[in-house]
Amino acid sequence: MIRELPRRVGVVLALLVVGGCSVSVYVRSADETRYLQTWKRDWEPIIAHSQPLRPTGSSPGVCNAGGSQRLCHDTSGVLLGDYQKLGQDLQGAWIPVSLRSANGQVQQALGQVIQGLGLRISAVENNDDAAWQQANDVLRMAEAAMVRAYEGYPANLKPLPPPYL
Fold first, then answer.
1. Among 27, 53, 58, 89, which residue carries the largest CB count within 10 Å?
2. Neighbouring C-beta atoms of residue 107, cutoff 10 Å
3. Is the dihedral of CA 127, 135, 50, 62 positive or negative?
4. Which residues span the domain enclosing 141?
């Protein structure tokens, strides 16, 4: 039975070639795999730490009207560190050529997220309504930029989970 396996595989391949069928297989490079693993590892805490921002049945979300300024400040501070780590971990010469364009767009969006979170923290600390509005505007732009950046990844190398702002 084992001796027949190579022959059977050869027959199947011959039928595919003769029948005009083709098979395409993409093998990820070590750096592509590293990138996808780094993305997943760094986004998981961001998703977890973002939960207080989301409205629930018992909370409007800590940074929304009726939320807690202190918790908004603290949550934003934790997220600021998380996004900075993501940005640092996804830069350098090791980034595969296949992901550089989309990664560059992600880096720009991360810069906006980091700026927006910094403004939000400052707005809470200084009770500054203008800075609060500016922070919200920057974070909305960052979210749109991150969506566009994520769409730039090749379909076979789209990192998971998707960005979560």
1. 53
2. 15
3. positive
4. 29-157
